[in-house]
Design brief:
UDP-n-acetylglucosamine1-carboxyvinyl-transferase, Chain; 4-stranded mixed sheet; 14 helices; elongated; binds uridine-diphosphate-N-acetylglucosamine
């Protein structure tokens, strides 16, 4: 298994181009199951994208630009950023356990399969380390739209004689739930209204993409989205939005060690909550319409933070902000409101010298710590990014193990960090 070996304390300078968003690319790729064809640009070269293309291939979606046969390999060199997809054979409707278990976002095939092929069989995703993560809201919404759903032998079986629009009021603004319903509603008969919809920019990107294909959607980016069903979608050429979590991760890196780090290919609004938090901790930044430059904070100040649905501070940035809080002057606190068990990285950061206590959903960070390099284990995608940042600021050598987690969601992070001046290399675990 791959690990990252990091020698901490080296300043970061220069510019880094932010990749296309994983969480926007995945639903857009799954929407290929709605039929027709399209070309997608700025697709990040990530493990989760490869898994998606492999699953889509099994469901009869052809693509050019990637080689899904290689998708299960540990790593491979990047492919062209632009991928053309078109619907081929439409007889398959199953997303098997082996793929769903490696990527929960596979449930995003449910909505489009039901809408287009009227049948879907999708392995029920299990719990994961950060929480139980049920998909009950997705399933209830499809039932309201006219699907019959049963669960047997770990699989969701869903079928319909044709989905019909209706009002769906979500108990919580679930991100992939909103996306799944949105995709189903695009080809459903009549009008669907999603109340308490997720407002995340990735949901908006999916909606804009679908509108570019001729879907009738309004209210995207707000808590009420209206979709009027259409018979078919047109083809289009679309570019995925930037990855705001990758951007946020590099901004925290800049706040820790930057001597003028410029992140490029970004917009201010989707990362405003991250920039606000860094400002509260003492960082100053300069923005242009497509870049942000940030310097290391000489003495970061402790602060308090709650993770929230967008436009609040993203749960996907919580692990990355902790190293900055650990070295800050004064205490900080973090309340995690989105997932129930998202502090698995804290034990590892404490082994590096941080002083963080967890009480239920709250982490209290003492601050003023000097981090020291250690061998640590990544437990999930964003936790791994937090450990990499901790390693960058730590004294001495850190080995972050199980970085396959990070490869699911960060495009060549070690190469991008190295280009900024970090001492980081990919090695085999336990390699001398
Ligand atoms: C998406 C993102 C993930 C991010 C999360 C929150 C993708 C591929 N993943 O995940 O990176 O961390 O949003 O911003 O875009 N819930 C239920 N029942 C449901 C659905 C959700 O109880 O039917 C709960 C979940 O367990 C969780 C909360 O709602 O506690 C938020 O989950 P949700 O917004 O659905 O997250 P994901 O879409 O899975």
């Amino acid at each position: 298994m791959d690990a990252f070996r990091i020698v901490g304390g080296h300043p970061l300078r220069g510019s880094v181009r932010i990749s296309g968003s994983k969480n926007a690319a995945l639903p857009i790729l799954f929407s290929s199951l709605l039929g027709g064809s399209f070309t997608l640009g700025r697709v990040p070269c990530l493990r989760d994208v490869k898994t998606t293309l492999l699953l889509l291939e099994q469901l009869g979606i052809k693509n050019s630009g990637c080689h899904p046969a290689k998708a299960s390999e540990e790593r491979e060199d990047r492919w062209s950023e632009s991928i053309a997809l078109h619907e081929g054979d439409t007889s398959a409707f199953e997303a098997p356990y082996d793929l769903v278990r490696t990527m929960r976002a596979s449930v995003l095939c449910l909505g489009p399969l039901l809408a287009r092929r009227r049948r879907a069989r999708v392995s029920l995703p299990g719990g994961c380390l950060i929480g139980a993560r049920p998909i009950d809201m997705h399933l209830k919404a499809f039932e309201r739209m006219g699907a019959r759903i049963t669960i047997h032998h770990g699989y969701i079986d869903a079928e319909t004689d044709g989905l019909e629009g209706c009002e769906i009021s979500l108990p919580y603004p679930t991100v992939t739930g909103t996306e799944n319903i949105l995709m189903a509603a695009v080809l459903a008969k009549g009008t669907t209204t999603i109340v308490n919809a997720a407002e995340e920019p990735e949901v908006t990107d999916l909606a804009r993409f679908l509108v570019a294909r001729g879907a009738k959607i309004s209210g995207e980016g707000s808590s009420t989205i209206r979709i009027e069903g259409v018979d078919r979608l047109d083809s289009t050429d679309y570019t995925v939005m930037f990855d705001r979590i990758e951007a946020g991760t590099f901004l925290v890196g800049a706040a820790l060690l930057g001597q003028g780090v410029r992140i490029e290919g970004v917009e201010h609004a989707p990362i405003a909550s991250i920039l606000d938090l860094l400002s509260a901790m003492g960082a100053e930044h300069e923005s242009t319409p497509s870049s942000i430059t940030l310097e290391a904070i000489r003495r970061p100040r402790g602060t308090s933070l709650r993770t929230l649905p967008y436009p609040g501070f993203p749960t996907d940035m919580q692990a990355q902000i902790l190293p900055l809080m650990a070295i800050a002057e004064g205490p900080s606190s973090v309340v995690e409101t989105v997932f129930e068990n998202r502090f698995t990285h804290v034990m590892e950061m404490n082994r590096m010298g941080a002083n963080i206590e967890i009480h239920g959903s709250q982490a209290t960070v003492r601050g003023g710590s000097r981090l020291e390099g250690a061998a640590v284990m990544a437990s999930d995608l964003r936790a791994s990014a937090g450990l990499v940042l901790a390693g960058l600021i730590a004294e001495g050598e850190t080995e972050v193990r199980r970085v396959y987690h990070i490869d699911r969601g960060y495009e060549a992070i070690e190469k991008k960090l190295e280009a900024l001046g970090a001492r980081i290399k990919r090695v085999q675990e336990d390699q001398p």
